[in-house]
Amino acid sequence: MAVDAGYARLRKTLTTISAILAATIIVFVPGFYVVTAYQYEAERLQFTANRLADRVTVEVYELPEMWPFLENRFIGILQRETRNFTQPTRQEIFQLDGTSVAKFGPDVLRLALSRSADIGDEANPAGWVQVSLSMVHIWGRTGIAGLIGLVLGLMSFFTIRTLTLHDLTVQEKAAAAVLAAKRDAEYADRAKSEFLANMSHELRTPMNAIIGFGQMIRDQSLGPDATDVYLEYARDICDSGDHLLSIINDILDLSKIEAGEAQLHEQELDVDALVEASLTLIKSRAQNSGLALRSSIEVRGAKLFADGRMTKQMLLNLLSNAVKFTDPGGSVILRVVRGDRGGLKFSITDTGIGIAQDNIPRALSTFGQVASSMTRSVDGTGLGLPLVASLAKLHGGGLELVSDVGTGTTATIWFPQERVIELR
Amino acid sequence: MIKLSAARWRFGAGAIIAMAWMAAPNGAAAETLKIGGTGGDLGTMRQLGDAFELWHTDVTVEVVPSLGSSGGIRAVVASVIDLSISARPLKDEEIAAGVTAKPYAITALVAVTTGGVGVSNLTLAELAEIYSGTRKNWPDGSPIRLILRDEGETDTRLIKEQAPELAQPLDDASIRRGILIGPSDQQAADLLESVPRSMGFLSLSLILAEDRPLMVLDLDGVKATSQTIASGQYGLVKTFYLVSGLNMSPAAHAFIDFLDSPQAQEILEKTGHAPARPGA
Questions:
Q1: ipTM summary value
Q2: pTM attached to this predicted model
């Protein structure tokens, strides 16, 4: 959160800096042009006025009293000077009392800039020359400079903003990824701790049964004649041992897969036979739980190229999960259907308690366990689904879970097309 | 106007000078006659003024530097000068201002050079080539440096009127860079003297009266003289008018009358003038 706020503040600051820079360019380009152009034209006009004044001064010195009559001659001089300007200009020679002696150019100049110079020596000027230039062209060009400035300003704004914000976004994403990784690591750490706690409980329970029943038989706690009871205890000890073994096997399998040491012993499997064998193994448990167990094979006679033990383990895991989490009177159906692009799917659908959608990713993750209240009500280490997912992945396929609380669960294992040998 | 032969002019002038000398009173001149106007005939006016002063010793003739035809007329209107030389007739507004003009002589507008360019005659066609810029060099390969007058100036206007084939070339030359402009007749003459291998148009009267060291070129094989001007053989001419105001001084009246004298006519002839044509 603090990181997000920091980036938002930085983003705002960068946007503000870009905007200030853009505004500076937008103002500076036409501003610089108009100031420079005015300065240049003013200097040029002053130079022209000085030159004309010098020229008139020659006549003033020669004809101190009569120079104001030389209108025609002065007009010739002014006219020649006009050729040095491409824009409308007006030049006029004045006597000291302000009387015009000669003028050339239009009477009215729009947006005129004027400069003047004294005629004669500074101590006793005889008059002055005024040169005016229309600055319409300068303002027209300033408009163009303004447009150029606007374009440059906007370009710089968007370029700087896009580049910096892009970098920022990359950094932000990297930071978010680091945060996510940290969260994942923390979750994994917590999950492992929970797993170990669960595991110790799961291992201890059958172990306690084995030790407890073993001690009772050894000490003949119920007397030497209670043979039937001791036999039942011995069965319980065997069941607990089996359960313990299956937990240990699951852990070993998963560890192997996670360590990348699991190896596939692939062979051609008859799908029909595989389904039949799996159902047979789970049938008695389903019956004991009061569940209807059915199968529906859409593609008869299909052959799969896969590890037989692992495939059977996947199906049994899912089937036993379905049986385990479905209340009496419910049903469990195993379907074999065509998958996408020539693949094959095994779907196990139950009418059990289901998994909340938010919890599905967690149920599929290694060491992830859905609500402890649920896991505690039934046996299991929470390793089943991750193990199935890992085994399916080893085969290039995957596990998909569709479920919601109270509506049951459909778990689907899919195999890719290259593992399907025959599919009619 | 009666046309006098050169011999009779000289005789008349000598007699008048002698009479004036004898009649001259002692002491400083009491009246100053100020004459200005176009530069084309200021030199002539100085010579005429000197001759007039011999005849009218109480009058000092002061010829002011070139004011141009228009400037001179304005100066007369403003009563700053008494008489003014104009190279053009009066405009309506000038007549309305109360001035009158009397044509007193014709001179030639001549093409001049500094000399030494290997040319003594130019045709109008050659002049058109020079002014339009198609002919850039003298026969010896050196560049022709044109000296121009302002576009609105009287000499330029007269040349365009009398030789229309030069009108466009003159306009072309006026906007070419590197061509010098003489704002007044004297300034143009000064430029023609100072710039080697230059060429331009001037009044013949100015060159002769001011004794300018310039070479006058023949035009279409005709040499500009009083005779060729008078006969109309020489094609480019300008008429000089003497402009006077409403309240003319007696000296001004006397000067105008003096212009008709044989002595003045002799000076005018020597300085490249022909008598003004009636009705000019």
A1: 0.77
A2: 0.59
